[in-house]
Amino acid sequence: MQFPSPVSLKWIAEFIGAELSGNTTADATGINEIHKVEHGDLVFVDHPKYYDKCINSAASFIIINKQTAVPDGKALLVVDNPFEAFCKIVNHFRPFEPASKMQSDSAVIGAGTFIYPSAFIGNHVTIGKNCIIHPNVSILDHCVIGDNVIIQSGTVIGSDAFYYNTKKDREFWYKKMPSCGRVVIEDNVEIGANCTIDRGVSHDTRIGAGTKFDNLIHIGHDTVLGKNCLFAGNVVVGGCSTIEDGVVAWGGVIINKTLTIGANAVLLARTGVGSSLEGNKTYWGAPAKEAGAAQKDLVWIKRIPELWDKVMKKNNAI
Fold first, then answer.
1. Tens of pLDDT along 126-146?
2. The pLDDT of residue 295
3. pLDDT band of 305, cuts 50, 70, 90
4. Which of 106, 187, 265, 292 has the maximum number of C-beta atoms within 10 A of its C-beta?
5. How far apart are CA 301 and CA 316, in angstroms?
6. Is 200 domain-assigned?
């Protein structure tokens, strides 16, 4: 999430009760979680396993629970509970804003766009020109819809990320991270019925121009889809994944979090993807492998009883 304007680190340190060290005169331009940090961002870390990764990431400013060396140009904000400090900042700059009508007065709707009765358009939503938003669609706060987009009934755009801070030394292990990111849907996208697209935790979930979705598709937080992708029904994509241009995923494909599918890859029905895949190839199976190799494996598996009988007969066992 980008702040409305740069914010003084000294103000942030005072706001969250942090000890500030390093580049204390700088301004932060936004706040992000570790998978999406950019120069000028604040990020938090509260586990020694991730200290080095976080300090040496693209983030300029780190909310941390231990004083340590600070790289040149960066700053540390040391607090007892970095997660709570992160949440406090997010909730200050992106507070809960209730809605009292089906279409918010702060929404911007382009010329030629038709919104059916019973569709909900949240606060600060932007919808482009010549779109069709069908009944019972929910487009939640701060989401951005391009031109010539069709969204079918029952779809939810901008639901909260499935993202929790986990500590097993407290009564309730999972604490929700507030979702302050957006969903950005580019031009000429079609979204089927009863799809769910989660907003980014602190950045954007993005659906590339020309992409087409069937019904019952779920896209996790902070995932970026390229242009002209084609997804059949019941595809599920985990958070923070990158799906490059022209990827085709047929029915029931499951794609794990934080991985990359290369451009123009084809995932045959019910493929399970657990690691990144190269583009311009066809995949099948779980775990996914090139379709030709997976089909050969299946042929050999089917022959196991026959081969077993031959081995047993050879050894006079039957």
1. 999 999 999 999 999 999 999
2. 81
3. confident
4. 265
5. 24
6. yes
* Structure tokens, 135: 């009944």
Set 35, 134, 142, 221: catalytic member: 221
- CATH code at position 77: 3.40.1390.10
Q: 275 and 223 in one domain?
A: yes
DSSP state, residue 130: S
- CATH number, residue 155: 2.160.10.10
- 84/123 same-domain check: no
CA 289 to chain centroid = 24
Q: Give the whole-angstrom CA distance, residue 288 versus residue 192.
A: 26
What whole-number distance in Å separates Cα of residue 187 and Cα of residue 184? 10
Establish whether 221 is a catalytic residue: yes
Q: What DSSP string describes 76-124? A: EEE-S-HHHHHHHHHHHHS------SSB-TT-EE-TT-EE-TT-EE-TT
Distance from the first to the final alpha carbon of the chain = 70
CB neighbour burial string for 234-260, b if at least 16 within 10 angstroms, e if fewer: bbbbbbbbbbbbbbbbbebbbbbeebb
Q: 27-31 and 2-8 as β-strands: parallel, antiparallel, unpaired?
A: antiparallel
